[in-house]
Amino acid sequence: MTHPLGNPPTKIIAVHLNYPSRARERGRTPSQPSYFLKPPSSLAGTKEAIVRPAGCELLGFEGEIALVIGSRAQRVAPEDGWSYVRWVTAANDAGVYDLRYADRGSNLRSKGADGFTPIGPRLLDARRMDPAALRLRTWVNGEVVQDDTTDALLFPFGQLVADLSRLVTLEPGDVILTGTPAGASVVRPGDLVEVEVTGGELSTGRLRNPIAEGDTLAPYGAMPRTDPAEREAAYGAAYEPMPLLPPGLADGLRSVAVATLSAQLRGRGLPHMSIDDVRPLTPGTRMVGVAHTLRYLPLREDLFKQYGTGMNAQKRAIEELRPGHVLVMDARRDPTAGTLGDILALRAARRGAAGVVTDGAVRDSAAVAGLGLPVYAASRHPSVLGRRHVPWDTGVPVGCGGALVQPGDLIVGDDDGVIVVPPDLADELIADCREQERQERFITEQVAAGESVDGLYPLGPAWRDAYENWCKGETQ
């Protein structure tokens, strides 16, 4: 492959461990970065096949951010390291674990085969990017398997450049592969691996590489072999991802009313956590889950042709859903075009989604309501989304119904509407909500018996003893 800068790199340097999630997966956290070299002949471009030699079982993919050096770097300081990076792009640090035993440490044959370092498809200008605000995602057969950011790297990019340049001169065109996050695993012939790097509004586009079967290796050298330890390393079996929402927490949030959560959040100085003007398609709906987000931008016809067709952000958002996710759509509170229809709602349900919230409209609303998937929307409308919207991005902070929603926020809905719960407040909110609702049950009984609300609602000192005695009776 021709190097993106027009010059073949003198070297490709890969970092072993750099993401905390991968370090947890591997069970070790290095105090200093370590590296290995990949030959320039391993470079490939998008759409080129990654070939697994016949007889090999464990072809691993690793989505990575690749840095392309723009000017000679020799003994530079960490604070200056990023200035020597000219381009940022996506990469896949592929390799066969079946040959690691033969080249452990150097990784020459296991990681250095022709085509084992695809990069691209677009170069992003490093001068326009914050190295601590990049996002890396990897898909296998359309499913997100890696999703991480650079805000908490073990070794920031400037440090990598500085560390290497102490002893190794980095030349223009040289490539640094900066490590992979958790989720790297094994692929097989017929699979498709895609990697994308984004920073703000900039995107490399997806680096797409199909996996193909190759020829059998000639017998005059190390031959493929595997063992349980290599399989565990290849598949990431040592890493057990936590569920999106622990069952106890989900049950706790499901047990309290959205109105009570709203009151408790307001009491903590958070009065703007409700997603306003959305209602369930089906009365009696309860919803609890973890936010995954989708952002729509206003329609621009020329950009819709580029971003709105094919496997666009709307469809990707659906395919990225995991069991327990609530897809939160930012439609700018525009009720005049559908943002979800029956087919994508069905797919979301099949992927185990806990619900969908949109401050726009739902089309095919009767069919969507019949799926049993909790859906909250601002309106119903027959039009497709292309009347008003361009599906733009997923997994970013969004505004929905006037509320700021981040990926990972907790989303709770009932007949009153939908509220956003910061994860770090969830446990104490549940406890306080239960106490508030217990008091309100007591107050309701007293009002039903003819008592005045004066001093009773909210519960005042004059009623405290009676309430505590009532609580004792409730627990017996």
Describe this structure in words.
With 476 residues, the protein is α+β, with helices and mostly antiparallel strands. It has 3 domains: 224 residues, Fumarylacetoacetate hydrolase, domain 2; 148 residues, Glucose Oxidase, domain 1, CATH 3.50.30.40; 48 residues, no CATH class. The chain is 24% helix and 30% strand. The strands form 5 sheets. Strands 17, 18, 19, 20, 21, 22, 23, 24, 27 and 28 form a 10-stranded mixed β-sheet that branches. Helix 7 packs across helix 12. 44% of the residues are buried. About 1% of the residues have low confidence.
Overall pLDDT, averaged? 92
Radius of gyration of CA atoms, rounded to a whole number: 27 Å
Looking at CATH, the homologous superfamily of the largest domain is: Fumarylacetoacetase-like, C-terminal domain
Helix vs. strand class: alpha+beta
Report the total helices. Answer: 13
- The CATH topology of the largest domain corresponds to Fumarylacetoacetate hydrolase, domain 2
| Share of residues in helices | 10-25%
Q: Name the poorly predicted regions.
A: 237-242
Tally of structural domains: 3
CATH architecture grouping of the largest domain:
Alpha-Beta Complex
Give the CATH level 1 class of the largest domain.
Answer: Alpha Beta
